[in-house]
Design goal:
Elements lengths: L13 H54 L2 H49 L7 H25 L8 H4 L3 E4 L3 E6 L15 E4 L19 H6 L5 E6 L6 H4 L3 H19 L3 E6 L1 H11 L7 E7 L11 H7 L11 E3 L5 E3 L1 H11 L1 H4 L1 H13 L10 H12 L4 E2 H12 L7 E6 L2 E4 L1 H5 L4 E6 L7 H4 L9 E5 L22 E2 L4 E2 L1 H14 L10
Parallel strand pairs: 3-4, 3-5, 5-6, 6-12, 12-13
Antiparallel strand pairs: 1-2, 2-4, 7-8, 8-9, 10-11, 14-15
């Protein structure tokens, strides 16, 4: 019969047991502090946007209640209550599932530790088990947040120090050329240039993710000698011209930049929009303002017809119609101009995916992530830190008129003949114009993208014969995972069973075709 711990004779180990018990008590105290401290950070990040939302809601509803009948308001609020209860239920369900996943991961280990402690067996005992849990909590509550903040100098573009030249400027935007980081790589002055339009809300830095780690979408082009330019929005808080910008201004500034780029290199520009920037790029091109300047198009994870979205469009449909209104996310600046609140826009996406993004679910998701590593040498990858820095800090306000274009695309489908639900310069915008102008178009999408789903990104394929490249993973993977030239889906290669072309490969092939064409244009002075 096995003897328990209390049946063991005194063998002189009492001092060691005391030390172990003291360490156990210390770890329990640490865990008791770090658990609420860590969870509170997740709750704070989530609830801050919630409080902002309630402020806007109260302001808008004060006016609506004066004009709508009490009965109508009662019915609408009843519907909103049902909607909120559904969100709460889904959030709780997701949190419970994540907690259960963590419990399943640790329950057998905890029981084994208890058995080993009671019967004095080899292996992890309760003191070691508690120590491991305390370390994981410390990583999530303290080490991980610090690593996220520490990645800032390496994350994204730092035009103030990196030497990328400013080429042009408008009242709203700056145009920078991205220089190669690859040693001994020179930009070919007569190569076909490309202009990248980043998204407004998510910012440009995701496209310069971790240059020092060879993970930068923009630098992928430059490292192959391609003249690559990126349009950077000025600080909206201090730029009134950007605050009141509309779609026509966007197209006009894009035209000015394309004129500058074409003059420098003697070849038409490839226009490349990422996410919302892709939608704006297509609208600019379809307006006719870029005729003669742009002869190729690349869109990456861009929402071309938002009504096909299974996530965000369905989310908007579940809202009572009264609340499907941009006024509930509009910020009034001190100068009286109104902009769309970028932090609130990001929060909407969290509500859409509340099962995975509720504070408790996100907290346990990170606990599981670090628990799988063990605690001896916890490694926080730069990729994980940079992605979280982007998610936490890179949410920018955007012009209200630009937001209205995207809002319309998520509420009104593209017409049967390919006409978009928005206009520029009073002109109808139709996808078929791309084919009429014989403009090659590469549409890149993420196979697991739950923000801009495949159906949303590939909507133009119903009207034009665009080329498609499907990348594994989600919304940011093209700019993060696959921007690494050593990756399985490197942007300068063909990849996958369908022999997809990456956007850099697409650009290189276009340039080669131009060089082979008779009477090729000559570059202007740099």
């Amino acid at each position: 019969m096995e003897k328990s711990r209390f049946d063991m004779p005194d063998n002189g180990l009492g001092e060691k047991d005391a030390e172990k018990n003291l360490a156990l008590f210390y770890n329990l105290c640490n865990a008791a502090v770090n658990y609420p401290a860590g969870l509170s950070r997740y709750v704070h990040d989530f609830m801050l946007s919630s409080f902002i939302s309630m402020t806007y809601f109260n302001e808008v509803e004060k006016n609506k209640l004066l004009h709508d009948s009490p009965w109508e308001s009662y019915q609408v609020y009843l519907g909103l209550t049902g909607y909120n209860l559904d969100v709460l239920q889904r959030g709780m369900r997701g949190a419970v599932k994540m907690m259960a996943d963590y419990a399943r991961m640790e329950m057998n280990k905890g029981l084994s530790a208890l058995y080993n402690t009671w019967w004095v067996k080899d292996g992890e005992d309760m003191a070691a088990f508690i120590s491991r849990q305390a370390k994981i909590l410390d990583v999530v509550a303290n080490v991980y947040p610090q690593a996220i903040e520490d990645i800032e100098p390496e994350f994204g573009f730092h035009f103030e120090r990196d030497g990328h030249p400013k080429v042009a400027e408008t009242d709203r935007f700056l145009l920078y050329q991205i220089l190669p980081l690859k040693p001994q790589t020179e930009i070919r002055a007569n190569a076909k240039p490309i202009l990248i339009l980043p998204p407004y809300v998510l910012g440009a830095n995701i496209l310069g993710f971790l240059p020092s780690e060879n993970r930068s979408y923009a630098h992928c082009f430059a490292n192959h000698g391609i003249p690559v330019y990126i349009r950077i929005a000025k600080d909206i808080a201090s730029t009134p011209a950007l605050q009141v910008m509309n779609g026509e201004d966007d197209a006009g500034d894009t035209r000015r930049f394309c004129e500058t780029i074409k003059q420098r290199h003697g070849k038409p520009v490839t226009l490349n929009g990422y996410c919302q920037g892709g939608f704006n790029a297509v609208c600019d091109l379809l307006s006719g303002e870029l005729d003669g300047l742009v002869d190729a198009l690349i869109t990456c994870v861009a929402p071309m017809d938002g009504t096909r979205s299974k996530g965000l469009a369905d989310f908007l449909k579940t809202l009572p119609p009264r609340f499907n209104d941009l006024a509930y996310g509009t910020k009034t600046l001190p100068n009286g101009n109104q902009v769309a609140d970028g932090k609130l826009m990001g929060w909407v996406y969290k509500i859409k995916s509340i099962e995975q993004e509720s504070p408790l679910a996100a907290f346990y998701r990170d606990l599981i992530m670090f628990n799988r590593q063990g605690t001896e040498d916890v490694v926080i990858s730069k990729t994980a830190a940079a992605l979280n820095y982007w998610l936490i800090h890179e949410r920018f306000d955007l012009p209200l008129e630009i937001t209205k274009l995207s809002f319309a695309s998520y509420n009104t489908p593209v017409a049967a003949d390919g006409t978009l639900p928005v206009k520029l310069f009073g002109r109808k915008l139709n996808f078929k114009r791309v084919q009429e102008k014989a403009i090659p178009w590469l549409i890149c999408y993420g196979e697991q993208d739950d923000l801009v789903e495949q159906e949303t990104a590939l909507a133009p394929r119903d009207y034009v014969d665009a080329e498609v490249s499907g990348f594994p993973k989600g919304h940011a993977a093209i700019a993060t995972s696959w921007s690494d030239p050593r990756s399985a889906c490197a942007l300068h290669t063909r990849f996958g069973e369908k022999n997809y072309r990456g956007p850099v490969r697409f650009q290189l092939d276009l340039d080669a075709q131009l060089d082979q064409a008779p009477g090729k244009p000559k570059p202007g002075p740099l």
